[in-house]
Amino acid sequence: MKGMLISTRDKNKTPISYTDALLQGLAPDGGLYVPESYPQISLTELRELKNSPYVDIAFKVKSELIGDFIPPVKLKELLSAAYSAERFPVPNGNIVPVTKISDGIYLQNLSLGPTAAFKDMALQQLGQEMNFELERRDENLVLLGATSGDTGSAAEAALKGLPRAKLFMTSPEVGMSDFQKAQMGALSGDNIFNISIKGRFDDCQDLVKELKKDPEFAKLGAVNSINWGRISSQIPYYFSGYLQVAKKVGDPVDFVVPSGNFGNILSAYVAKKMGLPIRRLIVATNENSVLDTLIKTGVYKLTSAVVTSSPSMDISKSSNYERLVFDLLGRRGDKVTDYMLEFGTLGTVDLVKYGLTSDRFERLGFFSGTSTHADRLNTIRKTFDESGIVIDPHTADGVKVAQDFFKGDGVPMVCMATALSVKFEDTIKEAIGEVPSRPDRFVGLVSGSEGFTLMGANANELKDFIRKNT
Ligand SMILES: *Cc1c(COP(=O)(O)O)cnc(C)c1O
């Protein structure tokens, strides 16, 4: 049934509704929710969406994923509010525009929302849906999140001032840009709490999972991409991007996605499973190249993440990969449980041991590449010289890998622009010698570490802090 979800670790496949999963985040068994089956959008339906406004495309795609768990009229209203001209101030109404940067290679700008990163695309809608569902149930929700930079401000901008939600957001003490810190600091107060953790993003993410295991905190909601509500709101822009570049509906298109927690590329994969004619799903990583190794060899090996100039990708435990593993292992919850347990215990796990060949990813359309700080600087400079566009360091990771994979065989390649360059002024200055000009809405932002509470990577300390403030 449309809108029914199952946990990746549940061998009995007990379904729960989209809206239950929305408020639950992580499944009680530690798994992630995925659709019971992937709904299909036919080429005929796709053709009808050509030239439609973004909200109409999102409505079609989300309806297929939600079924009747949010009434259609209401869903349309929530989407219109999430993607309003006020929140996405664009001149011509296209909030995810595609621009050509060289022959056959395009950028899709996903960063025109309130906090200038693609996270706004999902979190604005997640905030609307959560608010709607909490009102309907007459319930309140305490949410706990982890951010390596962009989820924090995007979630805070989406939930700020909502009377029924309280958000605690952990972030690594070192790694985020001054701009990202300033954005989050400015949003603290009311129902928003920023917690700076002496550790890496992986430590923050581990803390969130650790607290969820404690019955007292099991009901904490999630804003990270472990929440299916977020993944599902990232799928529509692949449909939009496709329709903007495909000469004819049905033609193949490649997508390149700068990846960290594997959420954005997983959304592309689901779009493909829903029938969107995507040829290659190309994962781009930075120096934290765990995903690149995984896709090339089938071995998922934990290393400790290093701080780079594309900090939102400084992740070595990519949560959403589990959703793909579920499909790779024949949608068998018991096998996924074993696989994740092996990974958790040994820090490494090989798909070959689970009966799969290492070309398994390729057969699903997955490819991958990496880039370095020097590559990012070169790519930012070159793209600026050739097109006049200043891309951000994460987008640069994607464009670099896109160029490595570009075939020039007539199949358009779309690179996801996951943040605006204004968020990473230092790296841009290093690349092209000047800082990007700030859009009006960010002019007053000043850096500093105000608006954060500092603590160790310690679950008990975090629990106390949450108890004290709820
Ligand atoms: C979050 C983020 C990414 C990584 O996205 P995932 O869904 O975690 O793979 C890439 N670029 C930017 C700018 C981000 O904020």
Secondary-structure topology with pairs:
Elements: E1 4-7, E2 16-17, H1 18-24, E3 33-35, H2 43-49, H3 54-66, H4 72-82, E4 98-102, E5 105-109, H5 119-137, E6 141-146, H6 150-159, E7 165-172, H7 178-187, E8 192-198, H8 201-213, E9 221-222, H9 228-234, H10 236-245, E10 253-258, H11 263-273, E11 278-285, H12 290-297, E12 299-301, H13 321-328, H14 333-346, E13 348-350, H15 360-364, E14 366-370, H16 373-387, H17 393-405, E15 413-417, H18 425-432, E16 453-456, H19 459-468
Parallel strand pairs: 5-15, 6-7, 6-9, 7-8, 8-16, 10-11, 10-15, 11-14
Antiparallel strand pairs: 1-2, 1-3, 4-5, 12-13
Helix pairs in contact: 3-4, 3-10, 4-5, 5-6, 5-9, 6-7, 9-11, 16-17, 16-18
The structure holds pyridoxal-5'-phosphate (PLP).
